[in-house]
Amino acid sequence: MAEFKEISPNANGGEKLMNWVDNRFPATKLFKEHMSEYYAPKNFNIWYIFGSLSLLVLVIQIVTGIFLVMHYKPDAALAFGSVEYIMRDVPWGWLIRYMHSTGASAFFVVVYLHMFRGLMYGSYRKPRELVWLFGCAIFLALMAEAFMGYLLPWGQMSFWGAQVIVNLFSAIPFIGPDLALLIRGDFVVGDATLNRFFAFHVIAVPLVLLGLVVAHIIALHEVGSNNPDGIEIKANKGPDGVPLDGIPFHPYYSVHDIFAVSMFLFVFTAIVFFAPEMGGYFLEYNNFIPADPFQTPLHIAPVWYFTPFYTLLRAVTSEMMYVLIACVVVGTALAVAKAKIPALFKGLIVGAALAVVAMMMAIDAKFWGVVAMGGGVVILFFLPWLDNSPVKSIRYRPTWHKYLYAAFVINFFVIGYLGTQPVSEIAGRISQAGTLFYFGFFILMPWWSRLGTFKPVPSRVTFTAH
User: What is the pLDDT of residue 165?
Assistant: First the structure.
């Protein structure tokens, strides 16, 4: 049993209360470990605000979600009407609903920017592999949460978008039809589906999401934050054991984050009050029409934050399969020719490649489209082991690496835009090229990340007071 800390009888009431709490719960200890005595690199830049903003948006979504659940009816006959009731009759209901719908898009904006910062500065490299894995798991849970929440308004796009996505699971060999039936809870998207998605959206996935966020932060504070130079500040400590290039997170970066939160809220509130639909990208016009199983919208597309991965799905056609088979064959030939491994392992590689090619020829392209869509997210988990660059930060990599990263971002925007558009011949070809580039960027990373002349990395972080 821990000893109780004594306090002076002359202490004020606040100090006595805090001492009483600290003797029973480590409030001050936790504050010191994770805020006032957590030393972060002193060269953080604007790219390091998006982690805190992600936490802010999570709080907004939870709070607004609680108020929406008070009036929402998870019933296929009543769901759309209950949303309209919230918008029209509940005091400030329209504001809560728009905050929640705008918050969903804001969540993905800040998370995408947060992940891109990690990509630029090598925040997934040793010793932060677990921090990155927890972050990718958060992204996956966030996608599940957003997809299930998208069905709840029970509008035309909610209904038909869910119909299309759930039906994709039926393309999985052997278990697909049963899996799709299990997800729907019925043979068509209906009341059972709505109730399942409501339960997962409100209870199950948020609990997983909160647990992953806590794990992400604990893992980060265990190994320390990365910085734009990619230098470990713990390698240079003063006599007192404090990193020479570190400053306490509080008050320096807590004030920094408060300013960022203020700027974010200006933009967020402007969108909520003046453009909550954002031209149909945040809230589609078809979703203001009640779900009708007998009338299919002319063009079904998911919300913008899913569209890059939806494009990966649509890009895999029967023609595309021949290109993918050629990629497998060429990749196998290069691996066997260049790799210095025993003949037995080369034989195993060839055998595995032949098995993959046989599967690709035997199984319908629709299934491989689903694999491509899922693989677009799953491949992010392997990033710490794909990057073989001798330096972490983009600052010290060859200049052409920066152009390659810029091309990746442009390609991501392009395939994201194409996912919102109807299928066409030219768009299909661009989508297929974009899909090959997306996966090629990661699959070939072990090779290209080592190429070029790298700049010398300084022993201490580069920082100019401002």
Answer: 84
Helices and strands in the chain, H and E counts? 19, 2
In the numeric block, which tokens belong to residue 75? Answer: 């019933």
CA 381 – CA 230 distance, rounded (Å): 20
Cα 300 to the center of its chain, rounded Å: 23
N- to C-terminal Cα separation, the chain: 48
Residue 121 near residue 226 (C-beta atoms within 8 A): yes
Maximum C-alpha span of the chain: 82
Are 186 and 143 in contact by the 8 Å Cβ rule? The answer is: no
Instruction: Specify whether the CB–CB gap between 383 and 129 falls below 8 A.
Output: no
C-alpha distances (whole Å) from 235 to each of 91, 231, 341, 393 are: 56, 8, 37, 17
Listed in sequence order, the DSSP H helices in 152-253 are 156-168, 176-184, 191-199, 205-223
Report the alpha-carbon distance of residue 52 to residue 264 in Å, rounded: 11
> What local confidence, expressed as pLDDT, does residue 466 receive?
57
Q: Are 82 and 72 in contact, with CB atoms under 8 Å apart? A: yes
CB of 131 closer than 8 Å to CB of 123: yes
pLDDT 10s digits, 89-121? 999 999 999 999 999 999 999 999 999 999 999
Contact 194, 154 (CB under 8 A): yes
Q: How many CA atoms lie less than 13 Å away from 297 in the CB half-sphere?
A: 23
> Residue 41: enclosing H or E segment and its boundaries?
strand 39-41
Nearest alpha-carbon partner for 147 in 98, 202, 68, 201? 201
Q: What are 252-303's pLDDT values in tens digits?
A: 899 999 999 999 999 999 999 999 999 888 988 888 999 988 888 888 888 9
Six-digit token string for 364? 């319908």
For 110, 217, 291, the CA distances from 52, given in Å and listed in that order, are: 9, 11, 37
Nearest to 265 by CA among 9, 57, 421: 57
- Of 141, 144, 116, the closest CA to residue 383 belongs to 116
Which residues of the chain fall below pLDDT 70? 1-3, 465-466
pTM: 0.93
In DSSP terms, 247 is beta-bridged to 40
pLDDT at residue number 359: 82
In the prediction, which pLDDT does 175 show? 87
3-state secondary structure of 227: coil
CA–CA gap between residue 200 and residue 368 (Å, rounded): 27
